[in-house]
Write a structure and sequence with these properties.
Helix content of chain A: 40-55%
Order of helices and strands of chain B: EHHHHHHH
Number of strands of chain B: 1
Distance between the termini of chain A: 92 Å
Oligomer: heterodimer
Number of strands of chain A: 10
Number of domains of chain A: 2
Largest sheet of chain B: none
Number of helices of chain B: 7
Strand content of chain A: 15-25%
Largest sheet of chain A: 5 strands, antiparallel
Helix content of chain B: over 70%
Radius of gyration of chain A: 33 Å
Largest interface: A-B, 41 and 40 residues
């Protein structure tokens, strides 16, 4: 048994033994060793400083080792020679550097990735045998200029991506719209109406309307429907205070339209979006509620003969806002 | 977080960069009598520089735009909706972009020449210029100008104008192609 383990380790060692002490395999081993010690430390004691220090050392060794290992790896693509090494090393460096602030500034590691990678790729051009510092020749300087400009543009693309994410964070209802016409963005996810916060607003409005009308007498209901504008405006204020306060809240408004005749009324609740959208005038989501009168079973003497009952339909798809004026005009 | 990505913008930017570099390299090669490789390197450098400067200007102006204009911007970027109120701004921005990019490219070309100058090449040139008498220097310069054709600024202006024309043509084609057959 012991012999077998010994043989296994001998084989393992002969397979992975660094060819020289000063080589990238040594660095990878050092990083594994550091992580192992860090793990051991976390099991045996909980000195956080030592543990973090060892993990950091492991990460640095890994980055250096990977950078060294990939120094000569290259492949051809469309007549260009691409060295993936600096990009991977840069990615490791950025992950390591910005690990602590990833939740606060998720963009930072992405935006700095091309710049750090370009800096890593530039280092060998400034070194000559020795190693000593040298100024690269004219050809090398031209390559460096293009390399840095390309990496600046790449990090601008990442910044642009995160700027769009910021906008979507402030105005999440944009996601419910279609991006087919856009010259800038694509949406890889399927479009869902439920991404629009109009859905949330309408569901809350439905609850409020049911709360206010269900079980009321016909007279009370008709009074409510007569004052529908101010009642719906009250509900709107309440809802906008209740839902999480985002920049887009000012762009939403709630409207109520009453149609039908006694005893059966129809109340159309509309969440109107006046922000950016693929519809020229904006769009609205609609929820139709039917208010009917139900006779009261074994009613007490004082109560009315019938009470209101509210039943609402599911929410519609996005409807362009200009049709509202068209339907009102006709 | 990664469902909405500006991939179309990146694709268009790559297309426009390739177009501009190809056209401007040809113009610079003709006007400045450069070898093929150098003209492409120069054109690539100045176009990448002007693109990078453009992005930096965009990112520095973006937090300053008023809310109304920001909605218009979001409309343009996500939905390609260009209202008439923003059209004037777009035309103004187009002119500004043209002249700023011209200045950036011109100074970029000067910087690049300065940066790529080898000390070994520079010194003998200076020596010979010191040796030459002033009387001859003017005629030498005039001959040199005649040999180089239009000046560098002129070359960059023509290159910029041609590449912008090509980009506008592509944008125009994009407008007349029906939306459902686009990229």
């Amino acid at each position: 048994m012991l012999d077998a383990i010994k043989r296994f380790f001998q084989q393992f060692w002969s397979q992975f033994k660094p060819p020289r002490w000063f080589s990238w395999q040594t660095l990878i081993f050092l990083s594994l060793f550091s992580w192992g010690m860090s793990l051991l430390n976390s099991v045996l004691s909980d000195t956080e400083f030592v543990q973090d220090f060892l993990a950091t050392m492991g990460w640095i060794f890994l980055t250096l080792g990977v950078g060294w290992a990939l120094a000569d790896v290259k492949f051809e693509f469309l007549g260009l020679t691409i060295y993936p090494g600096p990009w991977i090393t840069g990615a490791l460096t950025c992950t390591f550097l910005f690990e602590g602030v990833r939740d606060e500034f998720p963009a930072l590691s992405f935006v700095s990735w091309p710049l750090i990678s370009a800096a890593i790729a530039a280092v060998p051009k400034f070194l000559k045998r020795g190693p000593e510092f040298k100024v690269p020749d004219a050809k090398g300087r031209q390559e460096l200029v293009i390399l840095f400009l390309v990496s600046i543009i790449l990090s601008c693309w990442f910044s642009f991506h995160f700027l769009l994410q910021d906008w979507l964070g402030d105005y999440p209802s944009i996601l419910a719209d279609r991006f087919d016409r856009s010259a800038f963005v694509i949406n890889t996810a399927r479009r869902r109406v439920s991404d629009s916060r109009g859905v949330l607003i309408l569901n809350l409005a439905e609850t409020a309307v049911i709360e206010q009308l269900e079980g009321r007498s016909l007279a009370e209901t008709e009074l409510w429907l007569f004052n529908v504008e101010s009642r719906v405006a009250d509900i709107e204020t309440q809802i906008l205070q209740r839902i999480s306060s985002l920049e887009e809240n000012v762009l939403w408004s709630l409207e109520g339209l009453v149609s039908g005749d006694a005893p059966r009324y129809r109340l159309d609740l509309r969440a109107v979006w006046q922000g950016p959208s693929s519809y020229l005038e904006g769009y609205f989501l609609q929820k139709s509620c039917f208010i009917t009168q139900q006779p009261v079973q074994n009613r007490p003497a004082a109560s009315p003969p019938t009470v209101s009952q509210v039943a609402c339909e599911p929410i519609s798809d996005l409807l362009p806002l200009d049709s509202i004026t068209a339907s009102q005009g006709s | 977080m990664f469902s909405v990505m500006p991939l179309r913008a990146i694709a268009f930017q790559c297309l426009f960069l390739l177009l501009a570099i190809a056209i401007e390299a040809a113009v610079l090669r003709e006007a400045l009598k450069l070898p093929y490789r150098k003209s492409v390197e120069y054109a690539a450098s100045i176009n990448l520089l002007s693109t990078a400067v453009g992005w930096l200007i965009f990112f520095s102006l973006e937090p300053l735009v008023p809310l109304n204009l920001k909605f218009q911007l979001i409309n343009c970027i996500f939905f390609d909706q260009w209202s008439s109120s923003i059209a004037a701004w777009v035309i103004l921005a187009g002119f500004a972009t043209f002249f700023i990019s011209f200045l950036v490219k011109l100074s970029g070309l000067d910087l690049l020449r300065l940066l790529l100058q080898d000390k070994a090449e520079k010194e003998p040139e200076q020596e010979t210029q010191v040796e030459k008498s002033r009387r001859y220097q003017n005629t030498v310069r005039a001959r040199k100008n005649a040999r180089e054709g239009p000046s560098r600024a002129n070359a960059v202006l023509i290159a910029n104008a041609l590449s912008y024309t090509a980009i506008l043509l592509v944008l125009f084609i994009r407008i007349i192609v029906p939306a459902d057959t686009r990229l």
